[in-house]
Amino acid sequence: MPLLQSIVHRLDPTLDGERLSVTAASEPHPQESAAMETLVGELNATYNTKPKGWGRFVDGQAQGFAHELRAYLDEAQDFAAFTQTLTERLSTALAEHLSVGGYLLFTHQQQGETQTLFLALVHQRDGIGLNAAHHAEPAAQLNTRQLTLSARINLTQWQEGEAATQYVSFLKDRGGKKLAEVIAQWLGVEEGVDAPAETRTLLKAFSDYVEKEDLEDEESREKTDALVGYANEQLRRGEPMTLDELSEVVDEKQPKAFYEHIRHADYGLAAEIPPDKRTLNQFRRFTGRAGGVSISFDSHLLGSSVEYDESADRLIIKQVPKQLKEQLKHRD
């Protein structure tokens, strides 16, 4: 991923612990740097696997993150000044929520036709290295697998205007709810999508689609693998799933079928859905067909709506589907 600009500022708690001091870099990092590209690549990979909040900048901001970002993109201020201003504001916002120092990395990067601004607070950890004489000695390393805070703005989507509704993402770990709120406020973002809830609704829509189409076991598994594969690829790339593209992946012969199913059933899904890793990891379909009986259900139902008694070789369904229940009532 080509780096158009990158810079690193440092945040350190003061001795009294009441605020964070900023040691700013005076100029951007040299562009041609394999080490910086590797660092940014590792941070992006870590970021893509983390739970995130998604949204857009609040309209009508006369100042703040979006205002500074616009000034930078319009070349009204340079990258160093732009990022230093934001770092100073962040240090004030974080004073009550961060007690350790770190390096705040900003990168302006491009992949294909898409430009993004990525930022991450990276902490340093102690390690052991070898010097020129092959003697062991202390060596500080950046911990790229653990991020305290991070965010990404899809600049290309933002500049498209009203059509884009979730071009900002930021870390939102369950254990750091308050910190996530501070970051959202600093970014000037209003959340528009609940990624776990949207992903669960999408998987429910897919399960309903599979049931409606009455697919054979093998075909059902193929479509499930296709959906999960596409979702994980978008997760790896740090991009949302789009319903029309997903529909094509799920059924190449009928590329609009799944999309039309979602629209006609009115699941209330957005056109773009940020994939949630935890929800995807829990998704799997159990299917079986024998002796005129066909059974298919989502793995997350096992232990709640569906119980399996292995010793008695018995499957217990607690909540019979309404349609099946009506058929059983009127079987005579």
TrEMBL record:
InterPro entries to which the protein is assigned, alphabetical: Nucleoid_associated_NdpA (IPR007358)
Keywords assigned by UniProt, alphabetized: Cytoplasm
Keyword Protein biosynthesis: no
Localization of this protein: Cytoplasm, Nucleoid
Superkingdom as given in the UniProt entry: Bacteria
Family the UniProt entry places it in: Belongs to the YejK family.
Name under which the protein is recorded: Nucleoid-associated protein YejK
Organism field: Vreelandella vilamensis
Gene that this polypeptide is encoded by: yejK
